[in-house]
Amino acid sequence: MSAKILDGKAIAAELRDSIQQEVEKQVALGKKPPGLAVIMVGEDPASQVYVRNKKIACQKAGFKDVSVVLPAETSQEEVLALIDKLNADDEVHGIIVQLPVPDHIDPEEIIERIHPCKDVDGFHPYNVGRLATRMPQLAPCTPHGVMTMLAKTGIPLRGLNAVVVGASNIVGVPMMLELLNERATVTVCHSATKDLAQKVSEADLVVVGVGIPNMVKGEWIKEGAIVIDVGINRMDDGTLCGDVEYDTAAQRASWITPVPGGVGPMTIATLLENTMQVAYHLDC
Ligand code: GUN
């Protein structure tokens, strides 16, 4: 089998267009544009790229962009005070703090300080709890974007054997919850998992988010499986590479996401979607 490509770049462009149209409609009715505050502490190079891309997407969709770049030595108290200010600002509908943060900053306390109704990353324990109890409100952007892509295949997820490789709060755990909520049978693998190859080889759907280039081998993929690669790894020669060995996996899979142009663009489009939900549709 040769896999069909799940074109995240095209699906994200479609989603961003529909968001832009909705914003135009709401603004014509006299509503405020959605406001998104992206806070970055320090100068992590990968974060700088993500934050710049978020800013551009925000502006193109007609959002108010309230990005704040703070020096690496900013204290925990200063970040918390900024969040308090943004929580109280009715032109700001969504607040995110780009991760990772410098070592002296405690990300858990920061995440909990963001009002759950402005937590467009979906990382606050309130929103994680809502997802875990099948009452999702603001769901983490990368896994939710993956669900939007999976819907495009038209393949029902109910009853599929899904294997999620990686158990992070940003990708693996919310991905498990999203798939479980669609009644897939989900196995979550992590660094202590025994015989990863065996687990992956039984999967109808594999989602990999570990940040290790080519960690999942193409030969592990079951014939006809759906392969979703969340990894974006920059190689020494400057090229980007996923967590899955693409060429060999694509020979066995039914659907596969490329890197770049797969899951990556969906994360930003879903962030806009969450922010628009807060601005116009969430009663919270
Ligand atoms: N770092 C990597 N991915 C993300 C994300 O989705 N949100 C935030 N805030 N930081 C990240």
Automatic annotation (TrEMBL):
Record keyword Metal-binding present: no
* Residues given in the record as NADP(+) binding sites: 166-168, 232
Q: What is its EC number?
A: 1.5.1.5, 3.5.4.9
Q: Which gene encodes it?
A: folD
Question: What does it do?
Answer: Catalyzes the oxidation of 5,10-methylenetetrahydrofolate to 5,10-methenyltetrahydrofolate and then the hydrolysis of 5,10-methenyltetrahydrofolate to 10-formyltetrahydrofolate.
Q: In which pathway does it act?
A: One-carbon metabolism; tetrahydrofolate interconversion
* CDD domains per the UniProt record, alphabetical: NAD_bind_m-THF_DH_Cyclohyd
How would you summarize the oligomeric state and partners of this protein?
Homodimer.
| Residues covered by the Tetrahydrofolate dehydrogenase/cyclohydrolase NAD(P)-binding domain | 140-279
Task: Indicate the family of this protein.
Answer: Belongs to the tetrahydrofolate dehydrogenase/cyclohydrolase family.
Its lineage opens with:
Bacteria, Pseudomonadati, Pseudomonadota, Gammaproteobacteria, Thiotrichales
Name of the molecule in the record: Bifunctional protein FolD
Enumerate the catalysed reactions: (6R)-5,10-methylene-5,6,7,8-tetrahydrofolate + NADP(+) = (6R)-5,10-methenyltetrahydrofolate + NADPH; (6R)-5,10-methenyltetrahydrofolate + H2O = (6R)-10-formyltetrahydrofolate + H(+)
Q: Which domain of life is it from?
A: Bacteria
UniProtKB keywords = Amino-acid biosynthesis, Histidine biosynthesis, Hydrolase, Methionine biosynthesis, Multifunctional enzyme, NADP, One-carbon metabolism, Oxidoreductase, Purine biosynthesis
Pfam entry (one): THF_DHG_CYH
UniProt keyword annotation of Chloroplast present:
no
Instruction: Using the record's annotation, list all stretches that form the Tetrahydrofolate dehydrogenase/cyclohydrolase catalytic domain.
Output: 6-121
